[in-house]
Amino acid sequence: xxxxxxxxxxxxxxxxxxxxxxxxxxxxxxxxxxxxxxxxxxxxxxxxxxxxxxxxxxxxxxxxxxxxxxxxxxxxxxxxxxxxxxxxxxxxxxxxxxxxxxxxxxxxxxxxxxxxxxxxxxxxxxxxxxxxxxxxxxxxxxxxxxxxxxxxxxxxxxxxxxxxxxxxxxxxxxxxxxxxxxxxxxxxxxxxxxxxxxxxxxxxxxxxxxxxxxxxxxxxxxxxxxxxxxxxxxxxxxxxxxxxxxxxxxxxxxxxxxxxxxxxxxxxxxxxxxxxxxxxxxxxxxxxxxxxxxxxxxxxxxxxxxxxxxxxxxxxxxxxxxxxxxxxxxxxxxxxxxxxxxxxxxxxxxxxxxxxxxxxxxxxxxxxxxxxxxxxxxxxxxxxxxxxxxxxxxxxxxxxxxxxxxxxxxxxxxxxxxxxxxxxxxxxxxxxxxxxxxxxxxxxxxxxxxxxxxxxxxxxxxxxxxxxxxxxxxxxxxxxxxxxxxxxxxxxxxxxxxxxxxxxxxxxxxxxxxxxxxxxxxxxxxxxxxxxxxxxxxxxxxxxxxxxxxxxxx
Length: 554
Fold this sequence. Notes:
By secondary structure, the chain is of the alpha/beta class.
């Protein structure tokens, strides 16, 4: 009988889309599964990426043995450059994921020497009390893997992102035979992808997307631009194959797209039949009906090629009437408005736009309900934890588990930060650890408690008022009319004059009780001006701009 419980600690990806990260802990050993990012939402101004809070792992870094990556998508690997600065542990990942990770780490100084180890099915990895095997699954990227983790309490299966596609474009279906064999001795815990748990039936095959892309590229009388994820290597291959068939040329646009494609070509995951791939500058000698562009920006990222083209500010590409733009992706929740805005702008410029709402130009890489039931029936786990998805997806997946006979008391719908302890007899949530958002802004990071995001939200909502106050350092009295600069708050000289007058009045009220009193210090003046002027402006306008008093002593 094992002496210790197995602790399951989700640090990202539960109750949200993206930022996937799960920790498994037994006694003195911790392993981590995936380390992803999430796209910023509309109320996160200036934020580039959102990554998991790993403070619990940092506090226990001497116990963290390794990070295991299931596949190469950003929502499973993108946080590694930031995490490996804090956790100097080996990273085990499938071959293509390693290539994508290497490209990513190469962009960050000091991380090129990180220990990256290729993981292959059938080759068991021993780390502390854990023994980890990889098995192939089908997803929207080659080399996707699930994990079979032997623990003192029994076998843990983590599916990673998966679907059951019998005709995958990369030739690797989910290995149900391996999954069945691994499960023969019994499965203690199943952690299974829930992203599309609400969808009935089966997920369509990627092959149908290739057929649609081929028809679009073949029939187009102008340029075709295909926007997709830079890591979606199989989709890039479909575009290249279609272009080759119709004797067209392909240019790759976007730094991440170019870098990932170069790596994939070198590793053999991408082929270029007939030398289809051509530098953009050389495509000018070809007529538009022979040109295909593969671009980034399928999620409406502000600096991506698609958005720049839609805003008419891309330095090399402009829309001309007759162009066809294919958005080959489903918007991640929170990105819908940005994608919709880009599509509208493309239409305004005369482009014909195809997206997943009107054409089968994208198939998601996740299991629908019947596929989830197959995995549940194959594994028949003692305990079940749905992972990867918003809270409603997790609940729906738990309901599916109940429908095929898994007791409700053995299914646990968790959220980021929950600490689930499992023993041979049962399980319960016993604690919580920090598991909020960490924001990446350029090269810096800050957590949810930072005032930076709060201030940015205030600035975007109500603007800023800067009041320059010149005071006599001996008496503390104002010696000249305050200077006021307002941005994003009010306009008009009358409003600014009102703020000046109120600032003078505030300073006057800070006068001395008698001649022997000490003058107020600048810090005190700053605080009182912010407080009093803030209340006054709210009474007058119903808004609370950021107030920045600048005290100059003369």
